[in-house]
């Protein structure tokens, strides 16, 4: 799918595309071993719908994804009102006919109800909690009326902690980010009820260092690393993504023993929100998690609106054929 055509579709979507719905993101996914399989649907009246899609084959199994798990929202890119129930059903029929064991579809949260009502029998759901901070009114309004009092207190404490903040859009800070990510993996593994090492293995498999490098390489300055230092030592970092009116908090990591006393993590995210307001952004996407996690509770302090979202594992033609034979 040519980048120019993709950008035309984003323009038709009237700035409703997320960073994960851009050709740069497609290139990052493909840099991790997937192949581009993006679909463009056109109807007789001229209506067009772009579906970002990637394909993976390991020799015995084939899967398609929009996008693979851990790569965020894929789903359709189209002008408002174009994706009717009839057209969504046609797209789902096309996906179910692909020569694959399964097709993973992760639509935009605003359209989840539509897709959920139309997915074919045998579809499995992957429930998610999406938290979005509305930036209307500017940062002063967000600070006073969105941020909880405990967060404002944490920010003031961080301001007295002697933190140094660095920001980069070239990928230069990624090695330090990955060191902090390794420390976070150890912490998450210790806190998990899973067998020792399983949480670390699972999260790292979805987030290898090459993934962050690929995104930085293909999104350029639309991928930024924010780093907090104390005494010259990196103690917390966040990675943010930019597209049109949206800013996305993509990933965070920290050395908790050093970062927690200085409130470095909430301080960084508050700076991201302030910068997003200065850019004139409409919303700050705080990422998505499974409902009820400690990460979800942390983000609540920023006063986001919460949305139930979902991904869908749709049986492909290969799986349907196996069911018929059995």
Present the secondary structure layout.
Blueprint: H1 3-12, H2 23-30, E1 35-36, E2 39-42, E3 48-51, E4 54-57, E5 62-66, H3 85-96, E6 102-105, H4 112-116, E7 124-134, H5 138-146, H6 149-159, E8 164-168, H7 174-191, H8 198-206, H9 209-219, E9 223-230, E10 233-243, E11 246-254, H10 256-262, H11 264-279, E12 283-289, H12 294-300, E13 305-315, H13 317-325
Parallel strand pairs: 5-6, 11-12
Antiparallel strand pairs: 1-4, 2-3, 4-5, 6-13, 7-12, 7-13, 8-9, 9-10, 10-11
Pfam families: Acetyltransf_6
Protein name: GNAT family N-acetyltransferase
Domain BioF2-like acetyltransferase: 146-288
Overview of the molecule:
The chain has 326 residues and is α+β, with helices and mostly antiparallel strands. The protein has 2 domains: 3-127 and 310-325, Aminopeptidase (3-Layer(aba) Sandwich), CATH 3.40.630; 136-281, Gcn5-related N-acetyltransferase (GNAT) (Aminopeptidase). The protein has helices spanning 3-12, 23-30, 85-96, 112-116, 138-146, 149-159, 174-191, 198-206, 209-219, 256-262, 264-279, 294-300, 317-325, and strands at residues 35-36, 39-42, 48-51, 54-57, 62-66, 102-105, 124-134, 164-168, 223-230, 233-243, 246-254, 283-289, 305-315. The strands form 2 sheets. An 11-stranded mixed beta sheet has the order 1-4-5-6-13-7-12-11-10-9-8, with helices on both faces. Strands 2-3 form a two-stranded antiparallel sheet. A hairpin with a 2-residue loop joins strand 9 (223-230) and strand 10 (233-243). Helix 2 runs antiparallel to helix 9, helix 6 crosses helix 11 and helix 7 runs antiparallel to helix 8. The protein starts with a helix and ends with a helix. InterPro entries: Acyl_CoA_acyltransferase, BioF2-like_GNAT_dom. This is GNAT family N-acetyltransferase. Residues 146-288 form the BioF2-like acetyltransferase domain.
